[in-house]
Amino acid sequence: MQDAVVEALFRAYFTDGRDLSDRATLASVAAVAGLDHAEVDELLTGDKGLDVVQAGEEQARRLGVSGVPFFVVNGRIALSGAQPPELFQQAFEQAGEAVVAGEACELDPTTGKRGC
Q: Is 47 exposed, middle or buried (CB count within 10 Å of its CB: 0-12, 13-18, 19+)?
């Protein structure tokens, strides 16, 4: 469903010129893409899901995210900005070595802490 929502948002903004900062518009676009309108409205008007968003923001601050794109490989290796394919290959190889050595950590998106 994620792809359908992203497509609907892009179409609404870039093609149709709709104002996605308007909650009613945003909820309508999300509902057309297949999300439950009542649940979307609840998320936009209340605090439901706020803890997950705040945890993601905190994780981004700890990782030093200052722009996009920003990639984190296996919770250990960070790449900022557009990078050549060779650098991604090195990052994946390093992350793979950590997995084989039992050193890999996963980031819990709700707490932002590593579980090793």
A: exposed
Q: Where are the alpha helices (DSSP H) in the chain?
A: 2-10, 23-32, 37-45, 50-63, 85-100
Q: Across-strand partners of 77? A: 73
- Torsion angle of the four alpha carbons 93, 88, 4, 29, in this order, in degrees rounded to the nearest 10: 130
Are 71 and 89 within 8 A, CB to CB?
no
Which residue's entry shows tokens 């250990």? 76
Contact 45, 23 (CB under 8 A): yes
Task: Say which residue the tokens 């149709």 belong to.
Answer: 16
Query: What is the token pair recorded at 95?
Result: 């992350």
What does pTM read for this prediction?
A: 0.56
The fraction of the chain above a pLDDT of 90, given in percent, is 53
Is 114 within 8 Å of 107 (Cβ atoms)? Answer: yes
Nearest residue to 35 (alpha-carbon basis) of 116, 43, 80? 43
